[in-house]
Amino acid sequence: MIIEPKIRGFICTTAHPDGCAEAVREQIEYVKGQPKTDGAKKALILGASTGYGLASRIAAAYSCGAATLGVIFDKPASGSRTATAGWYNTAAFERFAAADGLYAKTLNGDAFSKEMKEKTVEVIKQDLGQVDLVVYSLASPRRTLADGATVSSVLKTIGEPYTNKTIDLKTNTVSEITVPPASEQEVQDTVTVMGGEDWEDWITALRKAGVLASGAVTVAYSYIGPEVTHSIYLNGSIGMAKKHLFDTSLKLGRLYPDLKSYVSVNKALVTQSSAAIPIVPLYISILYQVMKEKGLHEGCIEQMTRLFHDRLYAPNILLDAEGRIRVDDYEMQPDVQEAVNALWEKVSTLTLEDCCDIDGYWDDFYRMFGFHFQTVDYTKDVNPDVPIPSMI
Ligand code: NAD
To answer: Which of 52, 177, 238, 309 has its CA 20 to 30 A from that of 378?
Structure first.
């Protein structure tokens, strides 16, 4: 079939297999051109199909030469529906890895579930013996608990409503949005979904099964960002979950003293998850404008390559005063933030083109789903049915 983008709200309901393969190929090529990292040998990546998790898998494989086991939650093509972008990304990653002689297997299912943890342990026992890196990169709007109940996360403030500018991505217009405060229950649920509980469950399950190597590294991802996003992010419901995630990294370090457990604070980037947060996409498109102008812009793969090479596996790991890894350092540079603030004041529908890298935002958005690649012929008939070679 001919596959075209179909945008609904802040997602695209179609994905292009050749474009997704091209996105993965570009990321692999980038890492191949960077210095190698003496790091992970056998990595488990949770949430490995898109965004930071996919880039972590690529960095582990191509910077460290690691065998990678990915856990994803994606859908294959069915009838007239294409597969999800994460499915095509994973299929492509596995093909490239096989061609380059790298072990790569993938489990598809709900990473929050006990069954998925058990299955993963079995595969590690069978194929790898142990893993020495666990990346926790899940971003999900909901989580099904062991008793079958499903809880949802919300992107709301805490205490007071917060009003600021936002962008309507459908119409490319800037307007004001008021984000309401979350109830106590909603905050608690957001912590349950996006906090560290499931990360701890994974580490405990791997540890109990004896498949986590002594001296292993585990890392989960967080965000801090500037003042304009604090009410909705850092001090909002998602921020409470991220606080729990960080507390969990400390707890894991106490529970398992031979485990190196970190939270890495990453840069704001267009991913399927960040597109859903009010205010943040406008901030991201201004940030892109400023960081590209200053030659400081990075995507997921540049961030994760730097995380692996210059932070996680550097001889002396650089942490901030709280004990977190920071690869949001360029984003948070004072000159970058001053320039962003000045543009934030100025931005309106009329000045959007001048203040924001709106084309860059949209380009990244389409590329997440395999569109907008010069090297792909989108008029060509393609088979949407693409197998993931190792699918378990
Ligand atoms: P993303 O949506 O691209 O990736 C999330 C991944 O989790 C996907 O591969 C998805 O399939 C997987 N996933 C979701 N639910 C799952 C489940 N139940 N079982 C298995 N897999 C599941 O988002 P992202 O932006 O790459 O987010 C990854 C992490 O990075 C999150 O913790 C996020 O908060 C953090 N982060 C993101 C940004 C940003 O700007 N995008 C900045 C800093 C930190």
So the answer is: 52
